[in-house]
Design the sequence.
């Protein structure tokens, strides 16, 4: 089996991080099945996630390991972790603690706006769930 | 409204790319609601996606703009594009052409293995949908 085929078809875990040491991770609400957030993991965050069963990310803005929920209570308990074909992206199926949300704006999902293109250029619009009223910060 | 708050609560589209010029995009099958793949977009890929309604990525391995499906027929027609709170990640709700899959291994989703931790270290296991039989390349 070639190295590439082994990475794709084998059962050995060979996570691949980008030049910046990071890989994208999508957090999915295991009950509702929708995307809560997309963030990044470095090797330490991935290891901590698998070891503790609580999702850790690497905060690019703070340059620090980040156990999601430490300040908000929105802990993400890992139910299942998946890896993609070339092992450079992850999907975390999670149960969320606290108020059940993931977004620091107070909404459940970070993806509360859709992109619309039209005569007047490209604009955003709130999804029903993401409307302004729900954007009040806790 | 501060610049940060405008980015999070406003309706102006201000996509933010990383130091490498890229942002993660999660493709979701609009019918089944599950994650098909995670890839990256640069500004040109995002613009081409919004302009044409067909999802384009930036191939990091090939260093080229990549209209998904051009060789495989697995075209991703954009039904809705969402952006997250800080506008540096995207979710594309897509209808897939061709065989309805997204993965070059022949599977529908790239996330066909889960990560398992145990006595013998960290290993992968195929999900039911991602078992070896389905991994035969077309």
Sequence:
């Amino acid at each position: 089996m070639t190295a590439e085929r082994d990475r794709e078809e084998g059962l050995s875990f060979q996570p691949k991080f980008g030049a910046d040491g990071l890989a994208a991770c999508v957090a999915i609400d295991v009950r509702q099945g929708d995307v809560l957030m997309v963030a990044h993991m470095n090797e330490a965050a991935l290891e901590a996630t698998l070891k503790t069963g609580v999702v850790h990310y690497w905060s690019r803005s703070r340059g620090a390991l980040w156990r999601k929920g430490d300040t908000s209570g929105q802990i993400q308990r890992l139910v299942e972790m998946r890896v993609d074909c070339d092992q450079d992206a992850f999907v975390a199926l999670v149960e969320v603690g606290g108020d059940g949300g993931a977004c620091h704006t107070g909404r459940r999902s970070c993806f509360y706006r859709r992109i619309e293109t039209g005569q007047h250029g490209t604009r955003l619009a709130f999804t029903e769930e993401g409307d302004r009223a729900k954007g009040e910060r806790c």
About this structure: The longest strand of chain A covers residues 76-83. The two ends of chain A are 53 Å apart (CA to CA).
